[in-house]
Amino acid sequence: MHLNHILTLRKAREYGDYLIVGVASDERMRLKKGKNRPFIPEKERAEILRELRCVDEVVIIGGKEDCFYGAVDMIRPDIALINITEKQGIQKMQDFCNERNVKLERIERIDDHVSTTKIIQMMKKSKDTFSGVKIKNKDAQKRMLKIASSLKM
User: Three-state SS for 27?
Assistant: First the structure.
């Protein structure tokens, strides 16, 4: 999670009085982003989100279906918020929401300088990625080593 995620969630909260956030399952992340993703397991991502004041509830959206459609079907919100940069697929989402009497709103990216992809690119460029870092938690250490090895060029 990075600053852009938090800013977007704060903005999302302004659309209603109860914010439910759908988290992509690990399986979905691998299908969408590749075999080395996610870097942080779904349960940990959900727990991090639960700690944010602007978030009321977190659900993990699993399987091979697109997270957006699965979340709308599972939650049945009054308003569905999307934060996507590309415009393709929005009409399909709009039609899907209209069929379910759900209002679709798009939140623009708040800061184009911060993204997970850009963070990964910076890490790839770093010569000292995770060298000399001592991590006591063995599970966290294994994940960090997995991330570091997947970033090597």
Answer: helix
